[in-house]
Amino acid sequence: MIFTLQTNKKTEMIDITPTIARAISSEGITDGFCFVFVPHTTAAVTINENADPDVPEDLRTILEKIVPWEDGYRHLEGNSAAHMKTTLVGSSEVIAVEKGKPVLGTWQSIFLCEFDGPRNRKVVVKFS
Fold first, then answer.
1. Which of 71, 75, 79, 115 has its CA 20 to 30 A from that of 106?
2. How would you write 92-116 as a 3-class SS string?
3. How far is CA 62 from the centre of its chain?
4. Cα distance from N-terminal residue to C-terminal residue, the chain
5. Around Cβ 25, how many Cβ atoms within 10 Å?
């Protein structure tokens, strides 16, 4: 399955956990694995805390410190930092599924990480 979403900011983290949970339910998966892949070079996917909204914001802030937008990059499109952030975070996650639900820690959520928005983004979800 592939779903799309519109991002709204240059850099943001969007909780896609409810969408992934609905995909698991609609496919009738009870036990197995859910593979989530973002087929973009300037967007990523990660699992992290979502109970405190400051955690995703802190992650965004630290990535900006590690990979600033302006740093003498040679890539002509002006979005080299977004490519580097995507490489650091990663473009896929594998989530265990038990009893029809994603296995996540108490505070965890699945996030699409936008690093070059706003854009329309695709998320590929496969099961095994």
1. 115
2. EEEEEEECCEECCCCCEEEEEEECC
3. 16
4. 13
5. 12
| C-alpha pair distances (Å), 115 with each of 57, 69, 97, 98, 123 | 13, 10, 28, 32, 15
Tokens 């109970």, residue located: 51
* Mean of pLDDT over the chain: 96
Give the residue among 58, 8, 36 at the shortest CA–CA distance from 111. Answer: 36
C-alpha torsion angle, residues 8, 85, 42, 104 (rounded to 10):
-70
Dist. CA 107–CA 36, nearest whole Å: 19
3 state SS of 88: helix
CA 2 to chain centroid, in Å, comes to 14
Q: Which residues, 6 or more positions from 21, have their beta carbon under 8 angstroms from its beta carbon? A: 101, 102
Q: Which residues pair with 124 in a beta bridge?
A: 2, 37
**C-beta separation of 55 from 49 below 8 A:** yes
Q: Can you give the pLDDT at residue 71?
A: 85
| CATH architecture for residues 2-127 | Sandwich (2.60)
